Amino acid sequence: xxxxxxxxxxxxxxxxxxxxxxxxxxxxxxxxxxxxxxxxxxxxxxxxxxxxxxxxxxxxxxxxxxxxxxxxxxxxxxxxxxxxxxxxxxxxxxxxxxxxxxxxxxxxxxxxxxxxxxxxxxxxxxxxxxxxxxxxxxxxxxxxxxxxxxxxxxxxxxxxxxxxxxxxxxxxxxxxxxxxxxxxxxxxxxxxxxxxxxxxxxxxxxxxxxxxxxxxxxxxxxxxxxxxxxxxxxxxxxxxxxxxxxxxxxxxxxxxxxxxxxxxxxxxxxxxxxxxxxxxxxxxxxxxxxxxxxxxxxxxxxxxxxxxxxxxxxxxxxx
Length: 319
Prior knowledge:
This protein is α/β, with parallel strands linked by helices. The chain has helices at about 65-70, 80, 105-115, 145-150, 170-185, 235-240, 255, 270-280, 285-305, 305-319, and strands at about 5-10, 30-35, 35-40, 45-50, 90-95, 120-125, 130, 155-165, 190-195, 215-220, 245-250, 265.
């Protein structure tokens, strides 16, 4: 088969410098999936993925992440050279972050700019040209074959939460308030993450999420955004791929993508939510009841929702 090469550029720090970006999401060497090969740095790719890419903006409309980090304004990027002569109908723009109120105007501007260069523009919100769920990526370093073929790992601890101390939006701050409420309860759970506040009782940071999820029956998967029908993130995929039963706080997108019973829905980020976590994690019964549904969900994530599978289907339709 004549493989089509998919290049990639991103505003995520470091990603556009990695030749092997997404290679772990395929059972084949060098990022091959069916009719495509993901080669982020390919000089002359057949298709180009602009993944969470921030177009150059005036200083007053800079990326919220750059503003938060107080990074200096970057020199203006030559977009045309970054496109590597890929025709417009073969350039894909996927914005994967949620439409938080603090960044809606920046997102809208990115979509507007993308229409100059990209034939397909999508994101998990209602004001993008093509609203859609974001294809799945995950943050375990296990190989695809290992994830695909493994039985459930030994589960020995009730519950974990892998999160961060980011507090730059109201939604982030709400999650931290819930963390404080959870830690003031008598619920047994292990907390992992970076940049957590000093009051957080954490078990440390993780180089590989697997070790903070695989030994646990349950994992708290709490989204930064739960207000529309499109957004669901790697928080769900990571938990399920580690054979956890997610206790999930987010919008209804997950219900449409995953089989019934493959996750538990946290009702709210308040005392009612605390009581629910306490009830569910008191025994592993819910995990045992959900084990078959978790197995089914894992196969859907690996084979259907996988970003490489999405790209393969796109290329097949546009070649």
